Amino acid sequence: MSDKTAVLAKETPETAAVKTAAAGPGSYLVEVCLKSDFTDAEGQSAQWLLNSAGLSARAVRVGRLYEMRGALNLGHVHVAVRELLCDCVTQEFRVWHASCAAPGNGCLWRVEVWLKPTVTDTVGESVRDALRDLGIPDIAVRCGLAYHIAGRCSRQQLDRAVARSLANPIVHRVSLHEAS
Amino acid sequence: MTATRTAAPAPRTETVVLGGLRPAELQALSARHGWSLSAGELCAIQSHFRGLKREPSLAELETLAQTWSEHCKHKTFTSPIRFSDGRKTRLIKSLIEETIFKATKQLKKPWCLSVFKDNAGFVSFGSKWSLAFKVETHNHPCAIEPYGGAETGVGGVIRDVMGAGLGAKPVLNTDVFCFAAPDYAGPLPEGALHPRRILNSVVSGVRDYGNRMGIPTAAGGLWFDDAYRLNPLVFCGTVGLAPAWAVRKEVKPGDLIVAAGGRTGRDGLHGATFSSAALEGAQLSAVQIGHAINEKKMLDALLVARDKRLYRGLTDCGAGGFSSAIGELAADCGARVRLEAALLKASDLAPWEIWLSESQERMVFAVPPKNLKAFKEVFAAESCETAVLGEFTSSGRLQVAHAGTPVVDLDMRFLHHGLPRAERTAVWSPAKSAPAKSPAHKKSLAQILTECLGHLNVCSREWVIRQYDHEVQGGTVIKPLQGIRHDGPGDACVIWPHAATGDAADFQGFAVSHGINPNHGKLDPYRMALACVDEALRNLLCVGADVSRAALLDNFCWGSPEDPVQLGALVRAAEGCRDAALGFGTPFISGKDSLYNQTKDVGGKDLAIPGTLLISALAPVPDVRKALTMDIKGPGNALYLAGLTAEELGGSLFHEVCGRCASCTVPSADPAAALSLFKLLQAALGKGLVLSAHDLSEGGLGVAAAEMCFTGEFGACLDLDELPRRAPIYSDEILLFSESPSRLLLEVAPDREAAFLKTMRGAPVKRVGTTMANPVLKVTGLDGRVALEAQLCDLKCAWQGALPRRLGA
Amino acid sequence: MKKPKVLVLRAAGTNCDLETAAAFDAVGGASERVHIDRVRTGKTKLMDFDILILPGGFSYSDDVGAGRILANQIRLYFKELRNFVRLGRPVLGICNGFQALVKAGVLPASHGGEQTAGFTANDSGRFEARWVHLRLNTQSSCLFFKGLPEMIELPVAHGEGKLVLKSPRQLEDLKKNKSIAMQYVSDDGKLAGYPANPNGSIFNIAALTNPEGNCLGMMPHPERYTTRFQHPNWTRQTFVKEGVGLEMFRNAVEYCRG
Asked: Each residue of B438-460: pLDDT tens digit?
């Protein structure tokens, strides 16, 4: 899914009319990021980890990824984002769906890190339960992280640094995308 | 029960044909399934099933492999060892019986309420309460997925304590790590994680799980040695508080088997056998990520159910999952299990997978049928799921079925006592002692002291400690970071569990400390064990604990026991533990071992860890309002050194800094002498005659004095000529940096000196210096001239800056 | 004398409830630790209580954001909370409880009741536990502060404690309304950076109160400083009688007694 993803909406929840079409029945990918006016301490930590693994990243920002699958519609996604996944003061979000071109985010690289399907995703379980509270029917949720990395490096260098710092091939699935 | 059966049908699920296989073929079969069973063990299984006239099911073999694993049965410690020390050879029938257990049995302390038989040892704590203590290791998982490994390690030991007796409320976590230097620059084999990464991730895992559980992580340690680069050690410990009536569990036939907590999935298959095997080629499904919230919900429910006495027994699902948990609880009676009743994460699990899955955050309870409704209500109120899996029986058999199809039918006696004991050989050759020579170097004392303070094994651990919530529950009276700026190195923590007891008028607390020094062990494992116990007790003493009531835990982490030399060292260390326990009068109440900590390094040679013994000690503090910290409290006070200094620099930090001298005397504790000194000191501390106390360990007097001074922000003058000595010493260096055990540095107010000396009469205690307002550490040498003068801020900078710098933080 | 009834709200992952309840009991309150599900199902009624406490912890594991899920539950099942506050009954959110009150739009009080502030990760990028110096806003009418000195010390322990505001203009409103209840300061009482300000909060804000002064949210943990033996330097101090946190709880209890 993540190989061919696109930004369909980049909005804060208050203004949000989620302008997206579903990727297939009931499969949505939401990315939540800190608004750019706030310091991304997590991104700075990630930058430190990457650089101590041999990269020279200039800046890193982190996004949280939520993949929701099941009997849900766009209205559900809207509720999930506004009520739970995205903090209206500090965060903004995007909803992605499959079969579009690669995204451009002003960053040179975008790295997605997901737990492998064989590893229990405990955060996903929490989100699923919290969504149930909001009246969204039982769905499967997987959580991941997206790193937007600015810095000159080759795919190989990045791949190596990520495997040495942000992800562990034993439990994680990683995908790298060069921003256009 | 007899092993011959007539009526029961053979399990119809997937069977494994053992009949007719030769030992080599059995061995190959074991390797293929990842069982870690030896050919001898499989032969015993083969002949057992030959007697039954059937083949075992896959689930039965998996159950046996788990139950008989090194992790669960401690084969090395319980099997015969032929031990040779070069002169004599003797047969040790069971190492654990002849060392650790023996000391505890011989000491027979009435306050030891439950030792070595439960998930954790129990000691009494006042008249109404008891404390459970357990330290576990989670080494192999942390080597390959340090974050998840550390999380599940912490989660596992917390569950051990939750499942000890009738359940204890965790009130303290401790964590000790052994890693390679975070800036290790040497080669690593393909796939091995860098030590910095391991350190970062392990600390994060411990932090995220412990903090979420609401348990203060207030004790622990770090030890660096590059030989841990492929096999990091992660020791996680938990102390729990339980009412005195709740230290014993029982299970009666007819009680229901109820599983509670997280759901069962395919995660963590082969964890037990995995942790007993050397790393390469290990099964990787054992790697998991923990979910503290599930465990917290279970803890909240469990304590309510315990106090309503709704169940008779419980245990956690650790290695081996349901198979071990139910197998253990039912060991003396029997059990009938219906696996289809288990709550699953995925519906496609095979019966044997449900039975052996090691999904986290699950426990098993023995609930009398009349209590089931109330039990379920208590757990539902905390949104914690439960499922009745079957019942305990009096059949003496472990009978497991899935939707009516038998999966396992094993004789409990064979399961728990059928393991054949293989004999191993061990050799030990004592290091040849040669006269000590001071190594050639041109460093000044001030330079050496600064380097010692900035050494990874001494420097400040603040970067780690701050990430742990060490004050949740509001009872951390003596904190890991001490002194005027809350950043000095405490000897031990003191916990006043008033929130858990609900009695803020009861000022009884307890202290926990550790002793570890693998460098001593490289030269003399026996003396290492003595010194570790001595260090742990010294640390307890420094905060005002009652060391005559100290209880110990042992954790051995070693390389391969198949290597006679490594096994020989292990035997010596275990014997040291026994002699230390007997000498100090401090029983062991629980322990654990982790063997096979060796991995193929670059170039294909095995890299084993240095034999590592962690001693953890727990003692009551009769009145926490009299506890002590180690920071100098004011100027013009006397500094006393208690204990004799000898020329003992073998395995010392001094040699690490100034160049090694392999054949030096390893510090040797004399438990009898130390004990009488400690008793007097405890009396002096109890009378309030001492303002601060700090133990002398790595870096000796120099490091201890510097730490006390910069933590309290007062200077001190020391005169090396005044040190009480065992034999003449003619070197300032040796006096300042020797690591002779059983020594403490004490600060005494001038108006208390007379009373202090009266209390200490007959003990090797001497005034060695004075504190002062001027923030310098000044040491007068044997020649009467100033041998060292250093600004406290420089010393503190060296000590504080080292870890962040080497981490690149 | 009648003991004011204190509701100490629990949810999965709350972990400072025991010591918080004990602190209230010690100063004459009658505390009850209640799981939020009991409120949701109507078994326990908020309006039967005099004081509401949201203690620290990691409610619902803080997986999506600290206090977010608890905040949702408060909005969904605690419709009476606004009424409770309006009636002037004391409400105290500590650490995770503060985060939930902010995300539920209860603090800082806004007219529409929508969320106007938030929390992000500490500037250090790590969870940190340390003691901090705090300056209380002597101009605020916060009922918890009666008789307290202007400068106090308390421990903080959090990873996501950096308070941020929706708009810069809001800061002026907070100042005007005397809503800034506590600020992180250095040991000489000045606004200072890390580590005095442990998380990088805007204007060093450590606690917020409503203008009426009966609803307080704070990152530091008063329940961890109720006796003098909990201070990191108690072995050097002989002049302290009890922890300053206890006085805060006592103020709430006395307030209810009138």
From this structure: 567 789 999 999 999 999 999 99
* DSSP code, position B581: H
Would you give the end-to-end CA distance of chain B in angstroms? 62
Q: Are C155 and C221 in contact (CB under 8 A)?
A: yes
Phi-psi category of residue B716: left, alpha or beta, with phi > 0 → left and psi -120 to 50 → alpha: beta
Are C68 and A84 in contact (CB < 8 Å)? Answer: yes
Q: Can you tell me whether residue C206 is helix, strand or coil?
A: strand
Contact of C244 with chain A, judged by CB distance below 8 Å, is answered with: no
Looking at the 3D structure of chain C, how many domains does it have?
1
CATH label of the domain that carries residue C31: 3.40.50.880
What's the start-to-end Cα distance of chain A, in Å?
18
SS3 content of chain A, % helix, strand, coil (to 5): 30, 35, 40
Per-residue pLDDT of B550-604, as tens digits, reads 999 999 999 999 999 999 999 999 999 999 999 999 999 999 999 999 999 999 9
Q: How far apart are CA C160 and CA C128, in angstroms?
A: 9
Q: What is the predicted ipTM?
A: 0.96
Question: Which of B285-294, B537-546, B639-648, C16-25 has the lowest average pLDDT?
Answer: B285-294
Taking CB atoms and an 8 Å cutoff, what residues of chain C touch A68?
none
Is pLDDT at B13 greater than 60 in this prediction? yes
CA distance to partner chain B, nearest, from residue C19 (Å) = 5
Q: Does the beta-carbon distance from A120 to B289 stay under 8 Å?
A: yes
Strand-by-strand arrangement of the B424-427 sheet = B89-92, B81-84, B424-427
* CB atoms C230 and B292 under 8 Å: no
* Residues of the domain holding C194: 5-257
- Distance in Å, alpha carbon of C234 to nearest chain B alpha carbon: 9
Instruction: Provide the whole-model pTM.
Output: 0.94
CATH number for the domain harbouring residue A45: 3.30.1280.10
Q: For strand B313-316 and strand B606-608, is the pairing parallel, antiparallel, or unpaired?
A: unpaired
Domain that includes residue B45, residue range: 8-25+37-57
Q: Which residues on adjacent β-strands are paired with residue B594?
A: B557
Total of domains in chain B: 2
Inter-chain CB proximity A45 and C125 less than 8 Å = yes
DSSP letter assigned to residue B286: G
Answer yes or no: is pLDDT of A7 > 60. Answer: no
Pairing of strands C205-209, B776-780: unpaired
Task: State the total domains in chain A.
Answer: 1
Question: Alpha-carbon distance B349 to B266, whole Å?
Answer: 7
In a domain, B673, yes or no: yes
Q: How far apart are CA A174 and CA A176, in angstroms?
A: 7
Q: How far is A15 from chain C (nearest CA, A)?
A: 15
Catalytic machinery residues of C: 95, 221, 223
A50 token code pair: 């990457």
pLDDT one-digit tens code per residue, A139-169: 899 999 999 999 888 889 999 999 999 999 8
Question: Using H for helix, E for strand and C for coil, what is the string for B672-737?
Answer: HHHHHHHHHHHHHHHCCCCCEEEECCCCHHHHHHHHHHHHHCCEEEEEHHHCCECCCCCCHHHHHH
- Options B48, B74, B138, B270, the catalytic residue: B138
DSSP 8-state class, residue A49: H
What integer pLDDT is reported at residue B439 of this predicted model?
60
The 3-state DSSP class for residue A174 equals strand
Average pLDDT on B649-660 reads 88
Is a pLDDT exceeding 60 seen at residue A1? no
Element (H, E) at C64: none
Nearest of B757, B760, B752 to residue B680 by alpha carbon: B760
Residue where the block lists tokens 């985060």: C99
Say what the pLDDT of residue B434 is. 54
Residue B115 within any structural domain of the chain: no
How many whole angstroms separate alpha carbon B565 and alpha carbon B611?
11
Separation between Cα atoms, residue B130 and residue B123, nearest integer Å: 6
Domain with A17 in it: 2-178
